[in-house]
Amino acid sequence: MACRICSGRLHQFADFGSQPVSDAFVTPGDTAEEYFFRLSVGLCESCSMVQLLEEVPRERMFHEGYPYLSSGSAVMREHFWSLAERFLATELSGADPFVVELGCNDGTMLQRVAEAGVRHLGVEPSGGVADLAAAKGVRVRKDFFEAATAAVIRAEDGPADVVYAANTLCHIPYMDSILSGVATLLRPGGVFVFEDPYLGDIVERASYDQIYDEHFYFFSARSVRGMARRHGFELVDVERLPVHGGEVRYTLARRGERTPSPAVAELLAAEDAAGISDPATLRAFAERVARGRDELVALLTRLRDEGARVYGYGATAKSATVLNYCGIGPDLVTFVSDTTPAKQGRLTPGSHIPVRGPEAFADPYPDYALLFAWNHAEEIMAKEEAFREAGGTWILYVPEVRLV
Ligand code: SAM
Ligand code: TMP
Ligand code: ZN
Questions:
Q1: What are residue 309's DSSP bridge partners?
Q2: 87-108 burial: b if 16+ Cβ within 10 Å, else e
Q3: Is 216 in the pocket of ligand 1 (CB under 6 A)?
């Protein structure tokens, strides 16, 4: 297996065993049909990109029934709306600006752009969520973005001022095609802005559940700068984001067009100091993860033996890795509560725990709730104050197993 960015040699540092497609929630009775793959992750010795060693075919993940909705969190809605305002006030403030969003999902960000009457296009292969975006007045192309798609968009709509992708670029193994597509699409002086979970946060917090089929790459400033330069781009800005357990928003421009901000050199230096791309750091991460698994399984087993009731909260894609790596099933977690309509009434992939709507969580409250959507902890704990008041306890497993 060679690096998907530079063909360099990959060194595996963690293995989560056989895993299902993380967002493939199963219809009860249909469990024989599940697709499994080997989830392991490695570091490229040449370009330091951290990546999965096996790729799941994209049509197995992103299709008509893809359940994830960007609008499922109030904090994320605010996050995308404030970015839309920022784009409108800066990069999109010229004459007849045009923005393309890759993986626009249900149109949460582009809705604001559409309301401002600014030319835009969402490129979204998952038909169900693309329809939701269209219903909000967002112009959507139901397609995978790649070099060929970019050429068609450029021919039909002309060059873009901004190409933007949130939690999408790290999902796409075929990066050569993507970056050559972005180069085709972007006008001179335009920017490519993308935000994804940050390797530095994953290593620091041992948030191993960020590793699942859809998350193919785990970016750092160092690996992104190298990837950008292979395609004539430069990393000109980085911004750390608190969302989704710690992300970085990267800005690329064509080399020579913009001067990199001091934040780029600062983050590169911080990465070197923390050694986030050192094999020894990544091996230590894997050891910490294995200890965390043993602690979580021991806790859940003890609670079951004591007769406590434990529910899961948030049927996240991330939870697939935790449940299948730890071997947690319905004997340890009765059901998982989730607000997403397309997940309710189904079973979690591989582990087959029922998913129910949020009303089931309070009827009656469990003794413990295992917070799989820990990246939305503040929002969820505020909303579910009555659970704690009723004597309930949250179980968190990142950065370590603890009760709150
Ligand atoms: N941008 C949204 C957000 O941050 O909430 C959605 C993120 S969702 C985790 C990833 C999205 O990327 C999915 O809606 C998926 O269909 C889309 N996607 C996957 N491959 C893509 C590709 N090649 N081009 C455009 N979108 C893609
Ligand atoms: P995410 O961590 O990938 O954003 O997924 C969050 C999941 O948790 C998603 O399926 C929606 C669900 N969720 C709830 O059930 N209740 C909530 O209050 C929030 C914020 C999310
Ligand atoms: Zn490489």
A1: none
A2: bbeebbeeeebbbbbbbbbbbb
A3: no
- pTM greater than 0.90 (yes/no): yes
ipTM (interface predicted TM) = 0.98
Structure tokens at 117: 């009457």
Output the residue whose Cα is nearest ligand 1's atom 3: 70
Ligand 2 pocket mutation pick from 79, 340, 375 by most atoms within 8 angstroms of CB:
340
Task: Give dist(CA 24, CA 317) in Å, integer.
Answer: 9
The DSSP result for 245-268, as a single string, is GSEEEEEEEETTTSPPPHHHHHHH
How does strand 217-218 pair with strand 310-313?
A: unpaired
Model confidence pLDDT, tens digit, residues 200-250: 999 999 999 999 999 999 999 999 999 999 999 999 999 999 999 999 999
Distance CA 135, CA 92 (A): 23
Determine which helix (DSSP H) or strand (DSSP E) holds 190, and give its type and residue range.
Answer: strand 186-197
CA separation for the pair 26, 342 (Å, rounded): 10
Residue 81: φ, ψ to 5°: -65, -40
- Residues 165 and 83: their CA atoms lie apart, in Å, by 12
Query: Which distant-in-sequence residues (6+ apart) come within 8 Å of 319 by Cβ?
Result: 209, 312, 336, 348, 372
Ligand 2 pocket check for 355: Cβ under 6 Å: no
Residues 6+ apart with CB under 8 A from 43: 10, 11, 13, 49, 50, 277, 279, 282
- Which residue, judged by its Cα, is nearest atom 15 of ligand 1? 103
